[in-house]
Amino acid sequence: SLPHRRIRESLVDGSYNVFPFTSSRKRMSTAVKKDGKVMLYIKGGADQILPCCEFYRDAEGKKQVLDEKTRTFLDDKIRGFAQSANRNIGLAYCQLEGDTIPEEEPEGGYIWAGVVGIQDPLRPEVIDAVEKCQHAGVTVRMCTGDNIDTAMAISRQCGIFSPGDIAMTGQEFRNMVYDAAAVPDGDAILTPILQRMTVLARSQPLDKQLLVLMHMVRGEIVAVTGDGTNDAPALKLANVGFVMRSGTDIAVKSADIVLLDDNFRSVQRAVVWGRTVNDNIRKFLQLQLTVNVVSVLLTFIGSVSSSTSESPLTTVQLLWINLIMDTFAALALATEEPSEACLTRGPVPKSAPLVTRRMWVFILSQSAYQLTMTLVLQHKGADLFDVPDGSLEHKTIVFNAFVWATIFNMFNARKLYREWNIFEGFNRSIFFLFIITITIGIQIMAVELFKDFMQTRPLDWDHWLGCVVCGIVAWPVALIQKLVPVPEAKVVREFDIEDIDDDAKKMFDRLQEDIETAVEQRTEAEMANAGQSLAAARKMQSQALWRKVAVHHYHHPRILGALRRAHADKDLKTDEAKGDYHHFKTHH
Predict the structure, then answer these.
(1) Minimal CA–CA distance to 267: which of 104, 74, 131?
(2) What DSSP character marks residue 34?
(3) What order of strands is seen across the sheet that includes strand 197-201?
(4) Are 349 and 491 spatial neighbours (Cβ–Cβ below 8 Å)?
(5) Phi/psi of residue 190, each to 5°?
């Protein structure tokens, strides 16, 4: 067996005590009694263990006092490891006084043993998946227990953290939230900071829950990924919880979706599938509503305007049209496979109407054309097609033209967002072509073979051609309506607690109470300093914006000249603005 396993096997019960890892201490330790001595071995976050150390071993193995110079040297090394995206594991030990194993973990007096940098390379597809999510309007945030330097380095590699974004620790975030609840207009100050905060490091389970809560109360749809027991409360609270297949049982039970491949790309695919399902429902709706409007108005207006007060369409013909609309159209339009083209659009707010203004333009324009076309054929079709007025041939032409208009309109209904090419993506809609072929085949049989049953008569080839031409006009009508600019209604994002389940409601109420309690329990000194954490966060925000300016406009002398003139003309009023200007000028 391996050496460390042999050591473990040599220990008997009562000869050691393990102080397990906690998210607050960021370390674990083990007290071991052997050969009459009690040793304490510690491992954990290097930046958390180094402050507890008072000694170290030099190159010759001699015990030396950890002076300020050496401590600074080790700090720089740890920070260098972290900035290279390493997770730093600090190692320390010490000999305890006496020969009794302690019940509580001793604090301080450790001997620094070393630091180990562990790097977990990113999967190649992660960067692309994060970028696609961001293009889709999904803000990806990293909430981790890692050191802030490590978290920022990894998030830069992923594309999560970029110039203009804010990174802070869990303690800073927690204090900022409490400050926002304690000062006037704190919520308004907190909102823009939250929008730019993409990295939360050294976070505890409470910080993750607060992060989810702060975004949910602002009307955002929040999805959380995790795998550990500490992630379970945030997974339960969020609108959607993604858990890794390798996650703990508690985390799996708290989540909504299990990622079987433990890959962030699956989250991006979930976004694609969710949008595709929503789009497919809308495609079917805009076709169904068009057919419904035309069928109802044609039956009513056609009956009233007819000299015989008869409907242009018989009951069986209406049933066939209803079958096309409810069954065939649903199968054709609702089965289109997903395309990542949907990631180029922004997210649809939860409170947005299912039928958009653009869809209403489609429905009304197609309904107007089809209704006009069928009424013209009802009253003038006998002369246009040279058939007896009111004969079965005449009624068959009206019915046939209406069905062909619906068939061609199914092609139009495949597009929702002013796409010009209605034939794009047929490789994702093989079933659509199959359904269209079946519908056309049955329509031909209905006219030519099911004479008495469908109350139709066979048509000549020129009559068929005329009906197809009347139907295909639906295509240019669709192109014309896409030229009409239609601004969509602005939807205000609001949070409704009734939209979450009962367990999440209880957790939501408890978090709100915890925030109120934390604010009430502040000491007089803390109340006197209320707002300082918010002010520090605002400074982070302004510095992040300066960094964004530096990256995008540093090589533009006119921009820097304008800043210098503003400073010279005393346009920078506050000390904070002046300080940010000097910081920008010094570092760039």
Answers:
(1) 131
(2) E
(3) 142-143, 197-201, 166-169
(4) yes
(5) -70, -35
User: Angle 22-25-29 (CA atoms, 0-180°, nearest 5)?
Assistant: 75
* pLDDT greater than 60 at residue 373: yes
Helix (H) or strand (E) holding 532: helix 532-553
Q: Are strands 142-143 and 166-169 parallel, antiparallel or unpaired?
A: unpaired
Model confidence pLDDT, tens digit, residues 152-171 = 988 988 889 888 888 999 88
> Mutual orientation of helices 265-305 and 392-413 as an angle, nearest 10°?
160
Residue 52 DSSP code: G
Mean pLDDT in residue range 229-240? 87
Sign of the CA dihedral running 322, 327, 332, 333: positive
H or E element, residue 38: strand 37-45
Q: Which residues, other chains included, contact 287 with Cβ-Cβ below 8 Å and sequence gap of 6+?
A: 325, 329, 333, 406, 409, 410, 413
Separation between Cα atoms, residue 509 and residue 496, nearest integer Å: 13
Return the structure tokens found at 560.
């820097």
Q: What is the per-residue DSSP string for 144-158? A: -SS-HHHHHHHHHHH
Report yes or no: 374 and 404 within 8 Å, Cβ to Cβ: no
Say if residue 200 is exposed, middle or buried (CB neighbours under 10 Å; 0-12, 13-18, 19+). buried
CA dist., res. 385 & res. 223, Å (int): 60
Q: Taking Cα atoms as reference points, which of 420, 516, 439, 541 lies closest to residue 180?
A: 516
First to last CA, the chain: 56
Please give the pLDDT value at position 90. Answer: 93
Tokens of 564: 């210098």
- Based on its alpha-carbon atoms, the radius of gyration of the chain, rounded to whole angstroms, reads 35
SS3 226: strand
In the numeric block, which tokens belong to residue 466?
Answer: 């005329």
Strand pairing class (197-201; 142-143): parallel
Q: Percent helix, strand and coil across the chain, each rounded to 5?
A: 60, 10, 30
Q: What is the Cα–Cα distance from 59 to 430, expressed in whole angstroms?
A: 71
Separation CA 196–CA 544 (nearest Å): 9
Mean pLDDT of 17-26: 84
Structure tokens at 508: 């939501």
- 308 by Cβ neighbours in 10 Å (0-12 / 13-18 / 19+) ranks as exposed
Q: pLDDT band for position 435 (50/70/90)?
A: confident
Q: Give the global pTM.
A: 0.77
DSSP states along 74-133: HHHHHHHHHHTTPEEEEEEEEEESSSS--SS---S-EEEEEEEEE--PPPHHHHHHHHHH
**CA dihedral angle for residue 201, residue 206, residue 209, residue 215, rounded to 10 degrees:** -60
**How many Cα neighbours within 13 Å face the side chain of 422?**
20
Q: What are the Cα distances from residue 208, in Å, to 212, 236, 283, 339, 514?
A: 6, 11, 38, 32, 14
